[in-house]
Design goal:
Layout lengths: L3 H8 L3 H9 L6 H14 L5 H8 L4 E5 L6 H16 L3 E5 L5 H13 L4 E4 L6 H9 L4 E4 L14 E5 L2 H13 L5 E5 L5 H17 L8 E3 L4 H12 L7 E4 L2 H13 L9 E5 L13 E4 L2 H17 L7 E4 L2 E3 L34 E2 L2
Parallel strand pairs: 1-2, 1-3, 3-4, 4-5, 5-11, 6-7, 6-8, 8-9, 9-10
Antiparallel strand pairs: 10-12, 12-13
Helix pairs in contact: 1-2, 1-3, 5-12, 6-7, 8-9, 10-11
C-alpha cells in the first residue's frame, strides 16, 4: 500500500508539502499541488482519515438528524444533503430522533461524540434539551425545515433553513374559496412544530383574504402522521356542519385523510374537495390527481449544507434564517377540470354556489 512518503517521492516534493495539500493547512503553489494530486491518483494513495483529523481538528464529516426518514419528504431532503456533502468532499452520518425530545438530544450527542464538524438537525416540537446541548458545546449547527425562535429580544443563535409555509397554505385556502367553498377544514400538524404554527397561520390568512369567518372547530390536529389525520378527518366529518373542502398539512396526513374519506364513502372531489401541503412522487397518480403545495425538498437539503459550510468557514458571522419558495401544483382534487387554465374561470363539481367576488388566483411559483 503506497504511503505519503511514496507520494512525496513521485511528486518530487517533501512529505510536509503532501500533508499541506491533503489537509489544506498551508497554501501550496498550483503546479505543486497538481503534481501531488497526480501522484496520489497514479499511486492509488488513500489518505488516513483518522491521522488527517488529528492534524486539522476536522473529520470532514457532517451529522444529519431528521425524524421519519421513511417519509418521502425527508427522503428527498436526505438526497439533497448527501449530494451536497459528497460534492464538497465530506462524509455523512445519519440518525433518526423519532421526534422524541429526549432521544433527539441523545442521538445528537452521539453524533457530536463522533467528532462531526457540524450538524444539520430538524428539531422536535420541544427542542429545549437539544438547543441547550448545542449551545453549551458550541456545535456548528443548521436547523432544517423546522425553525426555533430566540428570546423575546434576540434572534435565534442558530442558522436555519426552511421553506415558506404561511403564504403557500393561504394559497390553498383562497383557491378552494374561489371555487365556492365556505367551510374549509384544516388537518393540522403536530402542535409545537414551527411548520404546524405557520401553516395554521396561513389557513387563517387565507380565510381572511377570502372574506370567510374563522370557525375553530374546522382546525383539528392530525399530529403530522397518517393515523392522527385519519382520526382528525373523521372528527371534521362528524361536525353538525361538516366541511365541503379539506386542506391537509403534510403528505402523511393526506394519506390518513384519504383513508377516512374512503371509510365514509366520500369521493374526491365530488363528495369533498381536497388540497394538500407537500407534493410527492405519486401525487399525480391518484384519481383524482392531488392539488398540492410542492416544497423544494432537495434544494432545502443542499442549502442546509451550504449554510453549514459557510458557518464552518466563518464561525463568528451572525446567524441567519434562509427561506426557500414553494410551488402551487394545480391538479384536479380541488374540483377543477383538467383542462382549466389560469385565465379561465374554474368549473367545479358539486360545490356550493360560487360568489362572483372570489376568483381563481391562478397558477405559478410562490415567493
Amino acid at each position: 500500500m503506497p504511503t505519503m512518503a511514496d507520494v512525496a517521492r513521485s511528486a518530487g516534493v517533501s512529505v510536509a508539502t503532501v500533508s499541506h495539500v491533503l489537509n489544506e493547512t498551508r497554501p501550496v503553489l498550483p503546479h505543486t499541488r497538481q503534481a501531488v494530486l497526480d501522484a496520489i491518483e497514479e499511486l492509488g494513495y488513500t489518505p488516513n482519515t483518522l491521522a488527517r483529523s488529528l492534524v486539522t481538528s476536522r473529520t470532514r464529516s457532517i451529522g444529519l438528524a431528521v425524524s421519519a426518514i421513511s417519509n418521502p419528504y425527508f427522503t428527498e431532503i436526505l438526497q439533497g444533503v448527501e449530494a451536497a456533502v459528497l460534492e464538497h468532499g465530506y462524509s455523512l452520518l445519519i440518525a433518526d430522533p423519532h421526534d422524541d425530545p429526549e432521544h433527539e438530544r441523545k442521538v445528537v450527542q452521539l453524533l457530536h461524540e463522533r467528532r462531526v464538524d457540524g450538524l444539520i438537525v430538524a428539531p422536535s416540537a420541544d427542542p429545549r434539551a437539544l438547543l441547550a446541548y448545542l449551545g453549551r458545546h458550541a456545535v456548528p449547527t443548521v436547523l432544517l425545515d423546522r425553525i426555533v425562535d430566540g428570546h423575546a429580544d434576540t434572534a435565534s443563535p442558530f442558522d436555519q433553513v426552511c421553506a415558506e409555509n404561511t403564504g403557500p397554505t393561504a394559497r390553498l385556502v383562497t383557491h378552494l374559496a374561489g371555487l365556492g367553498h365556505r367551510r374549509i377544514g384544516l388537518v393540522a400538524g403536530l402542535p409545537g412544530l414551527s411548520t404546524t404554527g405557520e401553516r395554521v397561520a396561513g389557513y387563517r390568512q387565507g380565510l381572511a383574504a377570502a372574506g370567510l369567518p374563522l370557525d375553530e372547530d374546522l382546525i383539528v390536529p392530525g399530529n403530522s402522521e397518517a393515523s392522527g389525520a385519519e382520526q382528525a378527518t373523521a372528527a371534521l366529518l362528524s361536525l353538525a356542519a361538516p366541511p365541503t373542502a379539506l386542506v391537509t398539512a403534510n403528505n402523511a396526513m393526506t394519506i390518513g385523510a384519504l383513508r377516512a374519506l374512503r371509510t365514509r364513502g366520500l369521493s374526491v372531489p365530488e363528495g369533498i374537495a381536497l388540497c394538500c401541503f407537500d407534493d410527492f412522487a405519486w401525487a399525480d397518480l391518484f384519481s383524482p390527481r392531488l392539488t398540492a403545495v410542492a416544497q423544494p425538498s432537495r434544494e432545502l437539503g443542499a442549502e442546509a449544507v451550504r449554510v453549514l459550510l459557510e458557518r464552518l468557514a466563518s464561525p463568528g458571522r451572525p446567524a441567519r434564517t434562509v427561506r426557500l419558495p414553494c410551488a402551487f401544483v394545480h391538479r384536479t382534487s380541488c374540483g377543477c377540470w383538467e383542462e382549466d387554465t389560469a385565465e379561465d374561470p374554474p368549473r367545479t363539481r358539486n360545490t356550493p354556489s360560487t360568489s362572483s367576488a372570489l376568483q381563481y388566483p391562478g397558477k405559478g411559483t410562490l415567493s
